[in-house]
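Page header: ASSEMBLY MODEL / two components / 541 residues total.
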Amino acid sequence: MVGRVVKRVYLYLIFLFLYAPIVMLVVYSFNESRSMGRWSGFTLKWYTELFKDTEVLHALYNTLAIAVLSAVIATIIGTSAAIGIHEMKRVKKAIVMNLTYLPVINPDIVTGVSLMLLFVFTKPFTGMGLGFFTMLLAHITFNIPYVILSVMPKLKQLDRHIYEAALDLGATPSYALRKIVIPQIMPGILTGFLLAFTLSIDDFVISFFTTGSGVSNIAIYVYSMARRGVNPKINALSTIMFITVLALLLIVNKRMSKDNSKVKESV
Amino acid sequence: MRKTWYAYPYLVWMAIFIVIPLFLLLFYAFTVTTEEGIKFTLQHIKRVWEPIYLMVLLRSVLLALICTVVCLVIGYPVASILASKEYSHNKVLALLLVIPMWINFLVRTYAWMSLLGRNGLIDIVMDFLHLPPVQLLYTDHAVVLGMVYNFLPFMVLPIYSVLTKMDKSIIEAAEDLGADYATVLKRIVIPLSLPGVISGITMVFMPAVTTFIISRLLGGGQYILIGNLIEQQFIVVGDWNFGSAISFVLTVIILISMGIMRKYDREYEGGAIW
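Prediction written out in full:
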């Protein structure tokens, strides 16, 4: 009994630690004064100002566009790669998997600067300067390995006989892939996608090195305010994002538990 | 089904965006541009070992080690509680560990600045308890705190995922055979969770060594870590050769420590974070 209380208190403390800065952001997004740490009355002005600030909105657009695009593209390339790698022979597979771990293991900053070198180096040939597109390419690159690493375990669990049975029953390989393999590895694909999206939203270092002047995401925008102190508009923006994510997760979770109970009932 | 060609787009992509850039890094790290053209040199690599830079490197490794140990000590119990019977049905709790990451980590680090700073939450609590105020911001403690805050989920999630997959009947069998709680923990749970611990350590240690934002914001920029040094060389000084040389040395150090880690864990599958 005591153990149970200790466990609960410990969890509360950890979540308090993880959420303290977020609570801080939410509370001070309603603060009259600019400074965090001094409460001087409730206001909604930062929210209205946020929607008038085109620079912040543009940064938000870049962040979301890159997160969605890079997650989608990385999921497609990564899932296809995982299926291919799964079929490879031992030695080849080992080599490719080591290549896959490389960006995961390599420090962000090294990935960032090496990609920057590539983009600067190839600019005379491709005419592509640092900006939105290079940042997108960089995000896809660091996202793909995470998708592969999420899909691979599901492929290992896959029962090969079902696929073979489908072929015996006259399914073409691509039809069997669509109808048998993909649905079974779907949970892995979805976690891969979500992981990619989260990593892209949270990234600063790689974006910092692979973007050019004028193109910023939220992280870079916040970093550029370093000397002036954080504008409360950012608190307001973070609050909106946080509430959106929380609401989405709660809805998804509720729907999933509903589906689960349906499955249980039918069994 | 021999569909190995499904991997080809990926291989082409990684060749262009991972392999070639790393060769470019090598190229910059080992060459110098003189009037006679580009020449091979070891001077940049040698420079990394000058005492002033070596100290920066050692300091970064030390801070990252402290951060990793703290994350392990705090995070292991979190993972085991979340995976235990009372909570294992509750996936929302595990999700709650990930949600903070959706607020960009820079924004969260800024929030910590005001929590730790003058008149921040810590000051208010200390004042309330009639204790003298502590200056936390711009110290080593603040840097470690910021690192632990940012990387803790990366320690908890891999351990959690290994623990939830663990066959609970083994533990019951041990208990039936008369093992007490400590023995079960020592002989069964910890050894079986080792793969998760190893990937947790890697997931925390690697980014902790190279962080340059946390040390800049919470350390007040007075502590230069290896990440700051690299960033400075590329962005401020413009010495790409030296910057590449540091990055190269760092990568080698990390690959070597990965190799050592892998030795202790034969079943290593890495990246099994979720």
